[in-house]
Amino acid sequence: xxxxxxxxxxxxxxxxxxxxxxxxxxxxxQATPLYRxxxxxxxxxxxxxxxxLFEKICLEGFQSGLSWLTILNKREGFRAAxxxxxxxxxxxxxxADVERLVQDAAxxxxxxxxxxxxxxARRVLELRREFGSLAHYAWRYEPAPHERPAHLTREVxxxxxxxxxxxxxxxxxxxxxxxxxxxxxxxxxxQAMGLVNDxxxxxxxxxxxxxxxxxxxxP
Length: 219
Hints:
Elements: H1 2-11, E1 16-18, E2 24-26, H2 33-41, H3 50-63, H4 68-73, H5 75-81, H6 87-91, H7 95-102, H8 111-131, H9 134-139, H10 154-157, H11 164-175, H12 183-193, H13 204-215
Antiparallel strand pairs: 1-2
Helix pairs in contact: 3-8, 3-12, 11-12
């Protein structure tokens, strides 16, 4: 069996690995079962729920300068700390909440990022008044098919840290008073929420995400 798996792994495109059952996946999720579950069921799959979208953009901001696995391992702590990312509740946080959260070892205790999350919750409420939902706002930035790579290999994926859409969204969010929303952070948010599907060719989750996108009703 080990030999068979080794042979199977040798035939995989660069950027994929095979688990013990021989299932191929993008190599970035290889470290832990939690990471693989996130890859298989969330990353690249379309989202229209405002609470989930707010969570994703906040966590991508917290991830800046850190590994995503660090954030993923603390996600339940973040959810408990930030009212499960209910923007209405987080928008009401004040200085005492900031001091409480700076002492919370279950999250990343970065004062600037904590204050940014509260600020951005207030900006979400403004977006809702203008666009109806955070989802409607975000999905306006979905790239057209011709703006996406025709064949997503590992080499192509290495060039995808930003895009024209992420630069445009980042610029607009900053104008609206958001923070920790640079083009790279916004592109990671686009990947996480399924605005783009960056699973590599040959990864089964790529086809699954494509099917989910085909069945998805854009807000």
